[in-house]
Design brief:
The complex is a heterodimer.
Chain A: H1 7-19, H2 31-38, H3 46-55, H4 57-76, E1 78-80, H5 88-91, E2 95-99, E3 105-111, E4 119-125, H6 129-132, E5 136-140, E6 146-151, E7 156-161, E8 172-176
Antiparallel strand pairs in A: 1-8, 2-3, 3-4, 4-7, 5-6, 5-8
Helix pairs in contact in A: 2-4, 3-4
Chain B: E1 4-7, E2 13-21, E3 30-33, H1 39-58, E4 68-73, H2 85-96, E5 103-105, H3 126-136, E6 142-146, H4 155-163, E7 167-171, H5 174-185, H6 194-224, E8 227-228, E9 255-257, H7 262-270, H8 275-285, E10 291-302, E11 307-319, H9 322-340, E12 342-344, E13 347-349, E14 353-367, E15 372-383, E16 386-390, E17 396-401, H10 404-408, E18 418-424, H11 429-438
Parallel strand pairs in B: 1-5, 3-4, 5-6, 6-7, 9-10
Antiparallel strand pairs in B: 1-2, 2-4, 8-14, 9-16, 10-11, 12-13, 14-15, 15-16, 15-17, 17-18
The chains are: A alpha+beta, B alpha/beta.
Chain lengths: ~180, ~450
C-alpha cells in the first residue's frame, strides 16, 4: 500500500541515514592527499579514503576540480624552444615569431620603437581557440620569470616586457592559470 | 608631447597610450590591444584609429606611414566603454602630429572610414565626463565631445571649463577633430578641402598617365630601332613615290627620289658623316657575325618631276653582320650602276655615284611571334648629281632571328643569328608587316 510522504519528511529520513554512515565521513583526507590522488600518484590508505570520497561531497568536489584542472593543464601546457641565430639582445630589436612545440600557441616579440628598453609580447592561440577563450594564461621564461599573464580575448593576449636583460627566452613555458576560486 | 585622456561615465578619466612597435617599414596598419578585455571597447577603438588614419591619408594629404600600434589604458584594464574610441582615434592622429598640448575626448565611432561620424554618448553623463577632464587638463588643452551632445551641457559647466583656459570643441566627424588638432598645433598648415583634394588627385592621375604613355612609347620606339643614326640636316625636298608596276619576282624595292638641283646636294653630301663612323656604331651593338642570303632589288623613282626610273635588280649573298649587309648593299648598287647606269624618264644615265652612299638609318624590328625580324635600310646617294633618298618603309627585308625575344627585353647587344629569307616589295611594306604581325 503506498505511503504518502512530504518532502520535509523525506529529507529528515535522508539526514538520519547520513548520520548513520561510518566515521570516515567525519575525518577528511589532507589537501595534499587529494592533490596527489588527483594526479594519479600512489597514496596511503587508498581504499579508506576512496570510500570517504564516495560519501563526502566536499572532498569529492575538491578531487573533481583538481582532476579537471590537472587534465586541462596537461592538455594546454606547451613549451617553446626558440633557436636564435644571433644574440638575445638583438632579438628584442626586431619582430620575432616563435611557435610552441605542439603548435598550440604562437609568440610574437615586437620591439618598442618609442621606448627601446621594452618589448611587446603577444601570445596567439592557434588551436582550440574557443576552449581557451577568456582563459587565464601565463607565459614564463627559462628562469620561471613571468613574461606575460592575462585573459585570452579573441584568441590573443598581449603585454609589455620590461627589464629585457633579465629575460632568458631560450625555453618558454605557456600554461593555463587556474585560480583558487575555481577550485 | 601632449597626453590623450579618455573620459568615463563614472566621472573619471584615464590616459591612453599608443606605442609604435615592430618594424619601421610596415606595410599594414596593425593594432595590438594590451590588457583591454572588453571586445566592444577594442573594436570601437580600432575603428576610430583606422578612421583617423584614413583622414590623415585622404583629407589632410599627409604622408603617413603605417605602423604596428599597441594601445592601452595606462591606469586601468577593466574598461567597458566604447565612448573612448574618439580618444583612441585622436591619439593615433597625435602620433603623427607632434603636439605640445593635451586633449581629452569622448564620443562613439563605429565605422573605420575617413568620413566616420562621431556618435553621441549618454546625455546624462556627458557633464560628469567634461568635469572629470577639467581636473586633468590645463590652459590651452582641448576637450572634444560629440556635436549631438551639445545641448546636454549646461552653461555652468561650460563656464567652469572655460575659466581654466580649456577649449571645448564639439565635433561631428573624426575629420573635424583631426583638422582642429592640426590647426591648433600649427595654424600655418592649410588643410585641403575634400573636393580640392580629389581634383588634385585626378590631375595627378592624368599627369601620371601622360608620363606613363610617354615612357611606354619611347620604349617601343627604342625597341623598334636597332641602330638609329641621326639623319644629317640636308636641304632635301621630300617627294612622294609614284606607283610603279614591279615584276612579281622582285624581292626588295628601294625607292629613290631624285631632285634636280644638284649643286646644293653635292655640297650637302660632302658634309655628311663617313660611312665608316656608321659602321663602327653598328659594330658595337652586334658582337657576332650573321649569315644573310638575299636578293636586293632597287627601284629608282622620281615622281615630283614625273621621271619614271626603271627598277634595278640586285642579287646578292651575304655572310656577315649589319655592317656587312650595308656594305654589300652599297657595293652591289655601285657595281650595278657603274655597269648599267640607270634609266629615268626614258633617258639613260651613266649612274656615276658622287661621294658615298650614306646609310643613315638601319632598323631591326622584331616581329611577333618573335621568330621573324624585319630589317629596314634608309640611305641617301648622289647618282649623276641627282640626290636620291630612300623612302621610309620601302627597303624591307624579312628574316628570322632566333634571339629576337631577347632583343624585345632590351638586351639588344646579344641579338645574333639573323638570316633574311623573305622580302617585301611594295611601298607600304613596313606598314603591311606591322599590320600582319601586330593585329
Amino acid at each position: 500500500m503506498p505511503v504518502k510522504i512530504t518532502l520535509k519528511q523525506a529529507l529528515q529520513i535522508w539526514k538520519q541515514e547520513i548520520e548513520k554512515r561510518p566515521a570516515t565521513t567525519v575525518f577528511h583526507p589532507h589537501k595534499e592527499w587529494i592533490e596527489k590522488f588527483s594526479r594519479g600518484e600512489d597514496v596511503p590508505d587508498k581504499e579508506k579514503w576512496i570510500q570517504h570520497l564516495a560519501n563526502c561531497h566536499k572532498c569529492r568536489g575538491k578531487w573533481y576540480t583538481l582532476t579537471k584542472k590537472n587534465n586541462f593543464l596537461s592538455q594546454y601546457t606547451d613549451i617553446a624552444l626558440p633557436k636564435v641565430a644571433f644574440s638575445q639582445k638583438n632579438l628584442f630589436d626586431t619582430i620575432t615569431q616563435i611557435d610552441s612545440s605542439s603548435g598550440l600557441y604562437n609568440l610574437t616579440l615586437r620591439n618598442n620603437l618609442e621606448q627601446p628598453d621594452s618589448c611587446l609580447i603577444t601570445l596567439n592561440v592557434l588551436l582550440d581557440k574557443q576552449e581557451l577563450e577568456n582563459q587565464q594564461l601565463i607565459v614564463r621564461d627559462k628562469n620561471r620569470k613571468v613574461l606575460l599573464s592575462g585573459q585570452v580575448i579573441q584568441g590573443e593576449l598581449s603585454g609589455w616586457l620590461h627589464q629585457l636583460d633579465d629575460v632568458d627566452i631560450s625555453a618558454i613555458t605557456i600554461m593555463p592559470e587556474i585560480s583558487e576560486d575555481d577550485e | 608631447m601632449g597626453k590623450v585622456w579618455a573620459l568615463f561615465t563614472n566621472s573619471s578619466a584615464c590616459e591612453i597610450s599608443l606605442n609604435k612597435t615592430g618594424s619601421e617599414y610596415s606595410d599594414n596598419l596593425i593594432f595590438i590591444p594590451v590588457a583591454i578585455t572588453d571586445v566592444r571597447t577594442r573594436n570601437s577603438a580600432e575603428k576610430a584609429m583606422r578612421s583617423a588614419f584614413s583622414v590623415l591619408q585622404t583629407y589632410i594629404n599627409m604622408k603617413v606611414k603605417p605602423f604596428s600600434f599597441s594601445y592601452e589604458f595606462k591606469m586601468t584594464s577593466s574598461v567597458i566603454d566604447s565612448s573612448a574610441s574618439l580618444a583612441f582615434g585622436l591619439g593615433l592622429a597625435m602620433k603623427y602630429i607632434t603636439c605640445s598640448f593635451s586633449i581629452a575626448a569622448t564620443g562613439v565611432i563605429d565605422e573605420s572610414s575617413a568620413s566616420a561620424v562621431v556618435k553621441p554618448v549618454d546625455s546624462k553623463t556627458i557633464e560628469n565626463k567634461l568635469l572629470a577632464a577639467k581636473e586633468f587638463l590645463k590652459n590651452g588643452d582641448i576637450i572634444f565631445y560629440p556635436q549631438a551632445n551639445h545641448l546636454d551641457i549646461s552653461d555652468k559647466v561650460v563656464q567652469q571649463i572655460k575659466t581654466k583656459g580649456i577649449i571645448l570643441k564639439s565635433v561631428n566627424t573624426v575629420k573635424e577633430a583631426v583638422k582642429e588638432i592640426i590647426e591648433w598645433n600649427n595654424p600655418s598648415i592649410v588643410i585641403e578641402d575634400i573636393k580640392k583634394s580629389k581634383k588634385r588627385s585626378f590631375i595627378k592621375y592624368i599627369l601620371a598617365c601622360i608620363v606613363f604613355f610617354g615612357v611606354f612609347f619611347s620604349f617601343i620606339q627604342l625597341q623598334n630601332e636597332y641602330v638609329k643614326i641621326e639623319e644629317p640636316n640636308l636641304p632635301v625636298k621630300k617627294v612622294l613615290p609614284v606607283h610603279v608596276d614591279t615584276p612579281e619576282n622582285i624581292s626588295v624595292v628601294c625607292d629613290l627620289s631624285a631632285q634636280v638641283d644638284t649643286k646644293k646636294k653635292v655640297d650637302a653630301m660632302s658634309t655628311q658623316p663617313a660611312l665608316d663612323e656608321t659602321s663602327k656604331k653598328i659594330d658595337i651593338v652586334r658582337d657576332q657575325p650573321v649569315h644573310v642570303e638575299r636578293f636586293q632589288k632597287i627601284n629608282v623613282v622620281n615622281n615630283e618631276n614625273k621621271y619614271n626610273a626603271k627598277p634595278i635588280r640586285i642579287k646578292s649573298s651575304i655572310t656577315g653582320n649589319h655592317n656587312e649587309i650595308v656594305s654589300d648593299f652599297k657595293n652591289k648598287l655601285s657595281l650595278y650602276l657603274q655597269n648599267n647606269g640607270f634609266i629615268m624618264n626614258n633617258r639613260q644615265y651613266h649612274g656615276t655615284i658622287s661621294g658615298e652612299i650614306n646609310v643613315y638609318k638601319i632598323k631591326e624590328i622584331p616581329l611577333r611571334p618573335y621568330t621573324d625580324t624585319a630589317i629596314v635600310i634608309e640611305y641617301k646617294v648622289l647618282i649623276d648629281n641627282f640626290l636620291f633618298t630612300s623612302i621610309s618603309g620601302d627597303n624591307v627585308m624579312m628574316g628570322t632571328a632566333e634571339t629576337t625575344v631577347k632583343a624585345m627585353k632590351g638586351q639588344r647587344h646579344i641579338l645574333k643569328d639573323v638570316s633574311i629569307d623573305r622580302f617585301f616589295t611594295d611601298g607600304n611594306a613596313l606598314k603591311n608587316i606591322k599590320k600582319l604581325y601586330y593585329q
